[in-house]
Amino acid sequence: ERAALYVVPAYGSLSEATGGCDGQTHLNRMEAAASALRTSPWFKAAPRRHLLLASTLPEDRNALGALGELAATSGAVALCADSRSCARGFQRRVVIPPLPLPPLATLAVQLQTARQMCGAAAARRRPTSLFFRGLHAKSHEAQELRARLWTLRQLPGAAVKFTRGGSASLEPDTRRWLVAQGWSGGSAVPFNAYAYARAALRSDFCVVVRGDGQNAGRMLVDAVAAGCVPLVIGDKTVLPFRKRQGGPLPYADFTVGVDELEYMRYPAETVRKALEEAAPRLPQLRAALLAARERLLLGYGDAPLRYNMSLARGADTLLRAVGQLICPRNPASLSSCIGEQAGTGATVFF
């Protein structure tokens, strides 16, 4: 009764992917969840303080069904990994960073990277100077942005490759530009999570470039988890929790930015200059990256079951972001704000 926030533990995409089971369809399960929520005394009293995981996959048809309709019309807060993939109808949304790749989220990797980013070890260079593995995008703008990455292969120590599974067709001018740079359609490699993780852990800087959406996506959290300094290309990339109360995460302290206009004109030269200027600051960048990791990552660990995540301190940052939405006047003191709204001294998060 004294909880400030209520989390609705429903996983719509998983339910839809499961399909029929024991005579129940996905939509039946969502209707049952909606009925249970509708009768909840806490939902009746404070529907706008309920949080719901509302990210959907491209293949989802109606991931939340009746549950999503009830939560959206009641003013619940949707937690989404990308603003473009949020379930329909929600007016109140918080974009959260995705979890890192499972091989990068283990406690062993966290300890390994922490040792590499502290003390004298922070100045040691890794075998790879710059790392990128990713898809071709679908939109023309994103295709043009990512196509320029191909020229970064000429930088000393760089490991830049496109992976299979992206857009089936590139825009003609994008394809012509890539072919002129020595690219061929058969140069893409299969994506493998373990190979990706190993490569990121061996790299000083990891490219973070937007795709069809504006969000940094998993590239950012994977880089942070690997102790690889994010090289953020372009000013339009949306970084998570940038508007968090008390100031944004100090991205300037642990990332390197690349001007998009200069990058589009002279990609290799612009990135080379950025890396050369950042190299002397690598120990400071890594120390700040280690501190930011604690505030950005939402989960870690692989016990008791493989890939079973535990909450990390980034969950506190998420609650602050939700607080900013619910109590914009004083989000740093959410329990006080909730207490004023509910007439109680609510202090417990659930």
Folded structure, characterized:
This protein is of the alpha/beta class. It is 39% helix and 13% strand. It is built from 15 helices and 11 strands. Helix 6 links the parallel strand 5 and strand 6. The chain starts with 5 loop residues before the first strand and ends in an 8-residue tail after the last helix. The C terminus is likely disordered.
Brief rundown of the structure:
With 350 residues, the chain is of the alpha/beta class.
Mean pLDDT: 84
Bin the strand percentage.
5-15%
* Helical percentage: 25-40%
Q: What class do helices, strands and sheet pairing give?
A: alpha/beta
**Strand and helix order:** EHHHEHEEHEHEHHEHEHEHHHEEHH
Summed up, the helix count is 15
| Total strands | 11
Shape: globular
Please describe the biggest sheet, giving its number of strands, its sense, and whether it closes into a barrel: 5 strands, parallel
Helices and strands, with pairings:
Blueprint: E1 6-8, H1 12-18, H2 26-38, H3 41-45, E2 50-53, H4 65-73, E3 77-80, E4 93-95, H5 107-116, E5 128-134, H6 140-147, E6 158-162, H7 172-180, H8 193-201, E7 203-209, H9 218-225, E8 229-233, H10 251-254, E9 256-258, H11 260-265, H12 267-278, H13 282-296, E10 299-300, E11 310-311, H14 314-326, H15 334-342
Parallel strand pairs: 1-2, 2-3, 3-4, 5-6, 5-7, 7-8, 8-9
Antiparallel strand pairs: 10-11
Helix pairs in contact: 1-2, 2-4, 6-7, 13-14
Primary descriptors:
350 residues, five-stranded parallel sheet, four-stranded parallel sheet, disordered C terminus, 15 helices, alpha/beta
